[in-house]
Specification:
This protein has 377 residues and is mainly α. It folds into two domains: 231 residues, no CATH class; 98 residues, abc type-2 transporter like fold (3-Layer(aba) Sandwich). It is built from 15 helices and four strands. The longest helix is centred in the middle third of the chain and has 31 residues.
Length: 377
């Protein structure tokens, strides 16, 4: 009976009126609704399509000094999988190097004049592949592709069949098609929630100070905790809706699977929403206006995103930064949603990540609430 009376008192009392007022104020703010709706959709689509480790259609220049059937077969083997496309055939090596230097070509293939004769003699022929390594990641992937294609072509040239002593069979679990967007999109979901949540919550609270409505609320009989809770509840509901919209975009546009529990997904997202709201509140308490809050958010969000494993694996980072990621709440959120979406695991597997995320949420929420209540007082 006491709990029912307390809930009834809340719904009829000041808190319900304050929540209603804050909700109407947010819904009337078209700029804020735009930030909650369109940027997440655009960012997910942009990152999902643009971020890909796959290499395709690299511009290849070919110098074929042999001009034989076998040399032409080698060139065809390189371009048949769309990794390379023939852009031009320079006259000599200096012209080839000049084209690579000026960015007109990404790679160059040089087949020597004795290529056919060396193969006919049963010896090992050599070809030269020159790769523009300004982008080291692309150059490394290109070298791996080219080496594999040349090896396959070389095995085709063997006249007698040969026995391979060891054969490996690789099975790809959870992502059998090796679709790169399935790795990036869950990370982008966390990135979008971080950017949107911290920005909207900080701007909302700072706007109250700029417009003077915060002072008006302090003159009402409402307690400080009621004012704070009334501001948190609408933001929490709207950010949950933002999570659902982002998930729908990932599923519809990128065919992102959902193999786990929807309830677990929403619980983990709710915990992280408290984290981003807390960070937004901290930004609001240290910022004097909206512009300062937006600029300050970049100093907070960029390191969080870079050290989260959203866009690049944590295992590839140096040891110091790998240990630093243990303090990053976004890391644990992305690990959880990847496990839920792709692996379909439950709380019994992810409980340690969820526990750490919950502890960070409690610490940040306690600290931000104390600062905000101190500012109110």
């Amino acid at each position: 009976m006491r709990i029912g009376a307390f809930v009834e008192d809340l719904t009829r009392g000041r808190l319900f009126s304050l929540v209603l007022k804050e909700s109407r104020q947010i819904l009337r703010d078209k700029q804020q609704l735009f930030l909650l709706t369109f940027p997440p959709i655009i960012q997910i689509c942009l990152y999902g399509f643009a971020l890909s480790p796959d290499v395709q259609d690299l511009r290849l220049g070919i110098i074929d000094e042999c001009k034989s059937y076998k040399s032409r077969e080698l060139a065809s083997a390189l371009i048949e999988n769309r990794v390379f496309k023939v852009a031009r055939s320079p006259n000599d090596r200096s012209a080839l190097m000049m084209s690579i230097e000026r960015g007109r070509l990404d790679a160059g293939l040089v087949v020597q004049s004795d290529f056919d004769r060396v193969i006919s003699q049963g010896k090992t022929a050599k070809v030269q592949l020159i790769v523009d390594a300004v982008d080291a990641n692309t150059a490394g992937i290109t070298q791996g592709y080219a080496r594999q294609m040349v090896e396959v072509y070389g095995r085709k040239l063997l006249k007698a069949p040969y026995m391979v002593p060891v054969i490996s069979q690789v099975t790809y679990a959870y992502n059998p098609g090796l679709i790169s967007s399935w790795f990036f999109v869950p990370g982008v979901l966390g990135v979008v929630l971080t950017l949107t949540g911290t920005l909207v919550s900080s701007v909302t609270l700072v706007k109250e100070k700029d417009s003077g409505t915060l002072e008006q609320l302090l003159m009402t009989p409402a307690a400080a905790w009621e004012i704070l809770l009334a501001k948190l509840i609408p933001l929490f509901v709207l950010l949950n809706a933002n999570v659902l919209v982002a998930l729908a975009v990932g599923n519809i546009v990128f065919d992102l699977p959902f193999r786990g529990s929807f309830f677990t997904y929403m619980i983990v997202s709710a915990i992280y929403i408290f984290v981003v709201i807390s960070m937004g509140m901290i930004l609001a308490t240290i910022s004097k206006n909206q512009r300062q809050a937006i600029l300050t958010s970049f100093f907070l969000n960029v390191p969080l995103i870079q050290l989260s494993g959203a866009l690049s694996p944590i295992e590839s980072m140096p040891d110091f930064f790998r240990w630093l990621t243990c303090l990053n709440p976004l890391r644990y959120y992305i690990q959880c949603i990847r496990n839920i979406l792709l692996r379909g695991v439950g709380i019994e597997v992810m409980w340690s990540d969820i526990l750490v995320l919950a502890c960070i949420a409690i610490l940040l929420l306690s600290f931000s609430t104390a600062r905000f209540r101190k500012q109110l007082n």
